[in-house]
Design goal:
Number of helices: 5
Strand content: 25-35%
Oligomer: single chain
CATH topology: Aminopeptidase
CATH architecture: 3-Layer(aba) Sandwich
CATH superfamily: Gcn5-related N-acetyltransferase (GNAT)
Largest sheet: 8 strands, mixed
Order of helices and strands: EEHHEEEHEHEEH
Structural class: alpha+beta
CATH class: Alpha Beta
Strand order of the largest sheet: 1-2-3-4-5-6-8-7
Distance between the termini: 33 Å
Helix content: 25-40%
């Protein structure tokens, strides 16, 4: 299993390798509250701050970072990544995901997840994909359950957050046997107008 940067195109979004050219869009569409539960955020919400954030995200050889581009707007509205890639065990994690408030509740997140999961299971041959979130982030937990993820448990005192908070992390996963049902659910959501 070899995971490399690539472009994944759907009907509503395109996932493309995160690059400095996305900084202006992300500075415009992003905001600090989107990172409330994340361990790392841009130092500032201007183009320079987002360029530094992008440079750090793309410097790691263990992470494949994507810009989420809303095709209707022709604008980057967030990011997501493959990381914790365990080729020998045919698994990886999807995370470092944030989506502009203006794109939340639309087809952007369901299609981005569909593209990432489809590539992971159907092209990379994954047998497990995991996702994690801060235990305080109820919106993210609801989204993962709506996606069809299985809640596996809580990693207690998993991270020390920038403000000193000891974060409990909720772990979710999807296995290859569960993928067909998850795929059907995501496709149904994308076919419902306004979702």
């Amino acid at each position: 299993m070899k995971v490399e940067p690539l472009t994944l195109r759907g009907r509503f979004v395109q996932l493309e390798p995160l690059a400095l050219r996305h900084a202006a869009d992300l500075a415009h569409t992003g905001s600090p509250e989107l990172f409330r539960y994340m361990n790392h955020s841009p130092a500032s919400w201007d183009v320079r701050g987002l360029e530094r954030y992008i440079s750090e995200a793309t410097a790691s050889p263990e992470r494949i970072a994507f810009a989420i581009v809303d095709l209707a707007r022709d604008q980057a509205v967030g990011t997501s990544s493959y990381f914790d890639i365990r080729a020998a065990h045919r698994g990886l994690e999807i995370g470092h995901t944030w989506i502009a408030r203006s794109a939340q509740g639309t087809r952007v997140n369901p299609e981005a997840k569909l593209l990432l999961l489809e590539h992971a299971f159907e092209r990379l041959g994954c047998i497990r994909v995991q996702l994690k979130t801060d235990s305080r982030n109820e919106q993210s937990q609801r989204a993962m359950l709506k996606l069809g993820c299985v809640r596996e448990g809580v990693l207690r005192k998993h991270m020390v957050m920038p403000d000193g908070h000891l974060r409990d992390t909720v772990l979710f996963s999807i296995t290859n046997e569960e993928w067909p049902a998850v795929r059907s659910r995501l496709e149904a959501r994308l076919n419902v107008a306004g979702n």
